[in-house]
Amino acid sequence: MPSSFLWGAPRTKKVLLAVLFFTLLLSCLYCSHDLNKFSESKARLEVSYNPYSAVNWATWKRCLSQHHDHVIYDEQKIRDYDEAGYEALALLHYSGVRSLAYTMRERIWPLTKFLSQYNSDAAFLNTTQNLKIFIPSMEEVGVHHMTSPFLVQYVERWEQKFDRSKEAKHYISEQELIDKITSRGGFPIIAHPTKKFSFYRKLQNFDALEIYNASFLFDYITEKRSQDYNQHFVAVWDDLLAFKSSRLFGYAVNDWSGPVKKERKETHPRIYDSGKTLVMLEEYTLEHYRASLQTGAFFSLKDLGVKKGLLPKVVSIAVRDSNIDIEVEDGVVSWIFRGDVIQAGPTFDLSALPQNLNYIRAEISNSRGTIYAQPFSLTAALYDKKQ
């Protein structure tokens, strides 16, 4: 199969071999079995947290969403997302560092503060085909990058050459930025987590990170980066789930490789618009949207098809005393703990598992890509309910 079919850009044989070699190497690094990973003792486990417990699979909406692309307040870019079928979109750009000229110093909220030809954001949304929800957000870049959905107050890295005294809006560290976002009603999401596991283990009070970033895959394929960091992003997620908290949610995003980059649709059609989120919603409101993100009632999509939207479909998820069952169409299910496939198939058997499994997560795949379900927390069953 020619590489132009896979990635849309001609590649030399030497570079293709390098791509395959590094992909294999990273797979070995992150997916090989660790002999100390699993407890030898077996136990019946039970689900202590199900992120989809509130979902009514027959009636809830499936809201296609984007949480990280730089649409700013550009009307055409926003309409590009609308035409691509998105129903929710974060209004986002770089923010909060006065010494960096490309960063903004105010929130893009409401949108019509910048597009004054519309009376309100609702009036703008009335002109769209698909978009129903705007999400206030920014990419905070003063320390390790984070996005900040639902935050409507401006925050900024403290730089003494501009402000002699530290003010309430200022932060100087990752932890302080997380705390600023959460205390003001936002959700901090760690963007493209390229650092070592230990860096993220030290951070507190966050429950989300990016696990797929289309722009990082594009940079790797076009040799702007030496490796595809996306495998590392997932490995960071698994590490934090095992050693920090089993309630950490993963997001897939476009970040500069979405519908606004029309040239990439021609040159790299599989990477183009490949990172997105599917949020289960009771109603199309910002309040319901926030509630679904807060509980983890969403899926992250790595959509690598030339034609988009042909990933598997999760019809329903049922958690029972003895198993977790995912009903899917056109996909295979793998159940994963710390990079290893523990079981395969639509049903995960809880009856005899290593005692140290504190979570399990599912990946549902076909030839066009992968759906990442949010993790289920596990704990040892207190007693056998069959007795």
- Gross geometry: globular
Cα-based radius of gyration, to the nearest Å: 21 Å
Strand content: 25-35%
**Helicity, in percent?**
10-25%
The count of β-strands is: 24
Furnish the topology, listing elements before pairings.
Blueprint lengths: L2 H5 L5 H19 L10 E2 L1 E5 L11 E6 L8 H9 L4 E4 L2 E2 L25 H5 L7 E4 L2 E2 L5 E2 L8 E2 L12 E2 L2 H10 L5 E2 L6 H5 L6 E6 H8 L8 H14 L5 E5 L8 H6 L7 E7 L4 H10 L2 E6 L9 E7 L3 E7 L2 E6 L2 E5 L2 E3 L3 E2 L4 E8 L2 E5 L2 E5 L7
Parallel strand pairs: 3-4, 4-6, 5-7, 9-10, 12-13
Antiparallel strand pairs: 1-21, 2-24, 3-14, 7-8, 8-11, 14-15, 15-23, 16-17, 17-20, 18-19, 18-22, 22-23, 22-24
Observed structural traits:
4-stranded mixed β-sheet; globular; 11-stranded mixed β-sheet; alpha+beta; 10 helices; about 25% strand; about 375 residues; single chain
